[in-house]
Amino acid sequence: MAAAKEFTYKEVEAHNTKKDLFVVVHDKVYNCSSFVDEHPGGEEVLLDVAGQDATEAFEDVGHSDEAREILEGLHVGNLKRQEGDPKPKSYTQAPKTATTSDGASAGVGLYAIVLIGAGLAFAVYKYLQSQQAQQ
Ligand code: HEM
């Protein structure tokens, strides 16, 4: 049996189009070109990780054993990691950021309401005090 072909990250990076799409999952290199159109999760997500390390993106979704079998069928070689290679690309980063900023703006809104309420109470208190002083 011939030894598995070795790719550097730079070589994998060159395969980043829909017609020529390599991804890395757990340091193995897969040619997904024939599968892009059939992917149940859509072509966009695969194009997003084209030529990159898709380990986290693939694992975050919780793909089935069947998906892993398809993946093995697309295996074309192994990744030869070198110093300075980028880290795996995460899929969940964007939604997480959105949730954080939503929470922050809700907190600011609540803070404003409390401040306005306190201001109003203070104004009423001052008004009543001045009324009493006049009597
Ligand atoms: C790299 C090779 C990949 C293969 C062979 C593959 C294969 C599959 C298969 C067979 C399914 C159907 C459900 C299942 O059996 O788990 C699926 C669903 C899905 N995949 Fe992938 N996938 C790959 C990469 C990715 C990547 C990188 C993402 C990025 C986020 C992704 C996102 C999804 C999503 C969101 C679904 C769910 C679709 C739905 O249920 O509506 N996949 N994939």
Description:
The protein is α+β, with helices and mostly antiparallel strands and 135 residues long. It folds into two domains: 6-80, Roll (Flavocytochrome B2, Chain A, domain 1), CATH 3.10.120.10; 95-135. The protein is 51% helix and 16% strand. It contains five helices and five strands; from the N terminus they run E-H-E-E-E-H-H-H-E-H. Mean pLDDT is 86; it is low at 93-100. The structure holds protoporphyrin IX containing FE (HEM). Protoporphyrin IX containing FE binds next to strand 3, helix 2, helix 3 and helix 4. It is a single-pass membrane protein. One of its GO terms (biological process) is sterol biosynthetic process. It comes from Westerdykella ornata. Its main location: endoplasmic reticulum.
User: Structural class per helix/strand content?
Assistant: alpha+beta
Q: Give the proportion of residues in helices.
A: 40-55%
CA-based gyration radius: 28 Å
Which cofactors or ions or other ligands sit in this model?
protoporphyrin IX containing FE
| CATH architecture tag of the largest domain | Roll
Q: Roughly how many Å apart are the termini?
A: 105 Å
The CATH topology name of the largest domain reads Flavocytochrome B2, Chain A, domain 1
CATH superfamily of the largest domain: Cytochrome b5-like heme/steroid binding domain
Overall 3D shape:
rod-shaped
Number of structural units classed as domains: 2
Largest sheet: 5 strands, mixed
| Low-pLDDT segments | 93-100
CATH class of the largest domain: Alpha Beta
Order of helices and strands: EHEEEHHHEH
Total helix count?
5
Average pLDDT rating = 86
Number of strands: 5
Percent of sequence in beta strands: 15-25%
Strand sequence of the main sheet, in spatial order?
1-5-4-3-2
Pfam families: Cyt-b5
Main location: endoplasmic reticulum
Keywords: Electron transport, Endoplasmic reticulum, Heme, Iron, Membrane, Metal-binding, Microsome, Transmembrane, Transmembrane helix, Transport
Subcellular location: Endoplasmic reticulum membrane; Microsome membrane
